[in-house]
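Same chain as my last thread, 310 residues:
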Amino acid sequence: MPRKWKRKRRPILRKPRLTEALILEWADAHHARTGQWPMRTSGRVREDLYDSWAAVDAALINGVRGLPGGDSLARLLDRERGVRNKKALPHLTERQIVTWAKEHWRVTGKWPTESAGAIAGTKGEVWGNVSAALAQGIRGLPGGDTLAQLLARQLGVRNGAALPPITEEQILAWADAYHVLNGRWPKATSGQIGDSVPESWAAVNSALEHGVRGLPGGSSLARLLAQQRGVRNIRDLPKLKVHRVLQWADAHRRRTGRWPGQLAGPIPEAPGETWTAVALALLRGTRGLPGGESLHQLLVRRRSKGKSDV
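reply #2:
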């Protein structure tokens, strides 16, 4: 009988032994080349033809190829190179977070929020992650908290998400005091209300607009002052009529002997109005006027006065 031919088995290639020093050498080269530290998903180890980072990580975990085991690539880099291991983050305490917040305020003059970025002097901590840990109850924290609530509770920092209610009467009292002190009425861009009032006019205007902090909404600081103090609201000016403009012009003529021009100043018969504002409305067709006509053209057409009379 013919002898059966048997396929010759190839010898099993044993991968070379590994050491932590060798792995760290490869990791340093990877970091120098890419700007990033390797992970188990980083593919082949360019410095070695036989290895991948997944195989290196497995050897560290399982204790093969001369390694003791019970380790990982992430743990090794954390321990020896200070690379943040996201699967083994250190515990946090409220005391530590408050200390970081005080330092942030000392350096920047502002209290941190969850969008404040990296925390100086830490290994990879950012305020967003700290805020998430406070809310979710991870990394040793109890949960159900926020960074704003913690800072309000521990340091008395104003919490924008839990502001006290205000009333229109209170806003008007602040506005009256501002007017006495400055000789003008406040606007949304007027900054802080005062040293003893931890509010800004912008925040008050927003609360009036959006109906928060106990206010009904649909208003604004300008509308409130116009309604309650008669302050002219330039974004909600009253409609104009051509016959009313002509009446004001007639009064100006009787008073001064001349017809008004657009630089004639305030209109006594219409408090808050100026001839400049009226002339612009006539020209642009705003405030209910048809537009396309100057003040001079209107007076020539309706009062038959020449340029020298105007």
